[in-house]
Design a protein that fits this description.
about 190 residues; mainly alpha; Hypothetical Protein Ta1238, Chain: A; two-stranded antiparallel sheet; two-stranded antiparallel ribbon; 5 helices; about 55% helix; elongated; nucleotide-binding; EC 2.5.1.17
């Protein structure tokens, strides 16, 4: 287990940081943007957990742990060299995506079908889940920028895509299974 006795290292003082393979890149590098946005998403889910109870709190905790896995995955370029690392390289796997899909299906089964877009809000937890959903979408956009270089785990992209769907459905669930959803009324403010 890694022990973090010293938080500051001064190695990033000139605008560069180390990726998990040891290479150094600018802090504005698309890979750093991608895993940094995943970290931000994890922080917003921490706010969600403040309002969640029971099964929902437990599910969010699992997702927060997944997001650390995802950050580790995105912080390691050169997937072809994973076998040369000398240790098991942590990557998001399809089973994590499959779990999200199963949870989405289970949560969605009791919801009234939508006939309108909904506005973020309702309960405090729903509002936080919708905020997390938008950050998940941004993380997905950042991660897909890495696709141009061909060096990103496809399961990581799929995970982020499903997670934003999970967060949307969870927001409806905690809004009294959709009864407290705030429906968009096109042109209502004219």
């Amino acid at each position: 287990m890694v022990v973090l006795n010293r938080i500051y290292t001064r190695t990033g003082d000139k605008g560069v940081t180390a990726l998990s393979d040891g290479s150094r890149v600018a802090k504005s590098d698309p890979r750093v943007e991608a895993y940094g946005t995943v970290d931000e998403l994890n922080a917003t889910l921490g706010l969600c957990r403040l309002h969640a109870t029971g099964d929902m709190a437990a599910r969010i905790a699992v997702i927060q742990n997944d997001l650390f896995d995802l950050g580790a995955d995105l912080s390691r370029p050169n997937m072809a060299a994973d076998g040369e690392a000398g240790y098991p390289v942590l990557r998001i796997i399809d089973a994590q995506v499959d779990r999200l899909e199963a949870e989405i299906d289970a949560m969605n089964a009791d919801l009234t079908p939508l006939r309108s877009f909904i506005l973020p809000g309702g309960t405090p937890l729903a509002a936080h889940l919708h905020l997390s959903r938008t950050v998940a979408r941004r993380a997905e956009r950042r991660a897909t920028e890495l696709l141009a270089g061909g060096d990103v785990n496809g399961a990581a992209i799929r995970y982020l895509n499903r997670l934003s769907d999970w967060l949307f459905v969870a927001g409806r669930v905690v809004n009294d299974n959709g009864a407290a959803d705030i429906l968009w009324v096109p042109g209502a403010s004219r």
